[in-house]
Amino acid sequence: MDKKITIAIDGFSSTGKSTLAKQLAKHLGYVYVDTGAMYRAVTFFAMQNGYINADSFDKETLRNSLSFIQLQFKFNPDLGFAEMYLNDVNVETAIRTIEVSNFVSKVAEVSQVRAKLVEQQKEMGKDKGIVMDGRDIGTVVFPHAELKIFMTASATTRAQRRFDELQQKGNDVTYEAVLKNVEERDYIDTHRVDSPLVKAEDAIEIDNSYLNREEQFQVVLDLVNDSTKTI
Fold this sequence. Notes:
- It is a single chain.
- This protein is an alpha/beta fold and about 230 residues long.
- The chain is built from 9 helices and 8 strands.
- The chain has helices at about 15-30, 35-50, 60-65, 100-110, 110-125, 135-140, 155-170, 175-190, 215-230, and strands at about 5-10, 30-35, 70-75, 80-85, 90, 130-135, 145-150, 205.
- The protein has a 5-stranded parallel β-sheet. A 3-stranded antiparallel β-sheet has the order 3-4-5, covered by helices on one side.
- Helix 2 (about 35-50) crosses helix 5.
- The longest helix has 17 residues, at about 175-190.
- It starts with 5 loop residues before the first strand and ends with a helix.
- Keywords: ATP-binding, Cytoplasm, Kinase, Nucleotide-binding, Transferase.
- It is found in: Cytoplasm.
- It is an enzyme of class 2 (transferase).
- Its main location: cytoplasm.
- InterPro entries: Cytidylate_kin, Cytidylate_kinase_dom, P-loop_NTPase.
């Protein structure tokens, strides 16, 4: 049996990182961790408590409230993947809205938030056999991962995908608003001081602008197979 490895998937928002990571984890029998869901849950908590809105962001109060935030992934056998729980409440649907998307990059800029979540993420991956996606997995969380993927696509392509997804879920949103959100998140993610989104030197870049899910999965699965043969 091939040894288990750590697979780190980073990249821009709406590149399908989570979809790919779920496919890989299911196929390989690995644990899947959606770090974006963790940051979204903290953002949702901040929104619920009035710490962040369109006009202000009370970072200090959020920092002081981090000890009151409990995050858990609970496997849903009907869906085939784990859902995000915030303080024992299922928030999987609530954290996927455009409203949360508008604030999540700002919350992720807070160093204390990142430190809290990165600590949890490292603990989750200590036994390998894990697929984790996010913004700083290959650079900060698992700098020694055996396989690092960096996913990208044009902003317009990503916005269209995100818009279609939100429409299917019944969200009342315009394409222009989604594109603006994608571009703003790109800027914040790549310009923040703490753990900005950058491609790790040893990461393999995949531009999936013209790849469907099946093609993308096969490309990465071949990389996984190559990586497990060399350890």
